[in-house]
Amino acid sequence: MDKNFVYKTNSFYWDTKGNEFLGAIVLPFYGAFVSEEKCQLFGDVSGKKMLEVGCGNGQSLQYQGERKASELWAVDISEKQIEKATQHLKACGLSAKLICSPMEEECGIPVDYFDFVYSIYAIGWTTDLEGTFCRIASYLKKDGVFIFSWSHPIHRCVVAENDMLVFNKCYFDESWYSLSLDDGVLTLSDRKLSTYVNALAKAGFAIEQMIEESDDEFMQSRDDNSDFAKRAKMLPVTFVVKARKL
Ligand SMILES: C[S@@+](CC[C@H](N)C(=O)[O-])C[C@H]1O[C@@H](n2cnc3c(N)ncnc32)[C@H](O)[C@@H]1O
């Protein structure tokens, strides 16, 4: 895998396509059927310094700003997404320090500074999971909290066929591949859950909580009978981790 090729392909996708096809996943949602309102992983963020990794159009930063976080910072690889986030936050009357850079690279984010670093469906785009987790640990104060959500790797291995869910990809296969979406291309790797857990441990984090299950009540309240909702009843589609810097 050539990381510069991945940066180029993926930033081009978000610069040109944005979230039109994928849809934005933003707080209070960690994924389609998991919400902060139910899980309460952040708790009270008033007066806290927060950094978002892969902020997209800035709506999760808005969520934290409205909950009275004292400082909002973010990094995103796409100039267009940073531009959208800047405009969105300005319209909401919030100020934030937004940096356009790959999360993998040194980009001037202060170290030992943040109470929370979080990422909603963006961490998995990194070309260097261990390096990114080490960077995130360096940005956090001691005992600072890192929360992220990502597509559950088991969900990436299964397809629906004749009312059954069938494995069509090896769970252990972490090789990089190209995904064509809406006339655009993204490059990614589906990492095992243990790859995330081991990289967190190596970077000096202790996992405090992990969520895999969809919220039943929430699914019922939305009366969602889509194939995706049916799948979410059978297997995890999202995972969320709350980890603390030791
Ligand atoms: C699915 S979006 C998630 C962001 C936000 N939660 C949303 O739904 O809009 C993924 C974001 O990660 C950013 N991204 C992808 N690869 C990145 C990288 N290597 N470093 C920093 N940001 C990256 C993209 O530009 C995009 O804004």
Automatic annotation (TrEMBL):
BP terms from Gene Ontology: methylation
GO MF term set: S-adenosylmethionine-dependent methyltransferase activity
InterPro entries, A to Z: Methyltransf_11 (IPR013216), SAM-dependent_MTases_sf (IPR029063)
Superkingdom as given in the UniProt entry: Bacteria
Gene3D superfamilies (alphabetical): Vaccinia Virus protein VP39
Methyltransferase type domain: residues covered: 51-148
This protein's record includes keyword Methyltransferase: yes
Keywords from the named record: Methyltransferase, Transferase
Protein name, per record: Class I SAM-dependent methyltransferase
Organism from which the protein derives: Cohnella endophytica
Organism classification: Bacteria, Bacillati, Bacillota, Bacilli, Bacillales
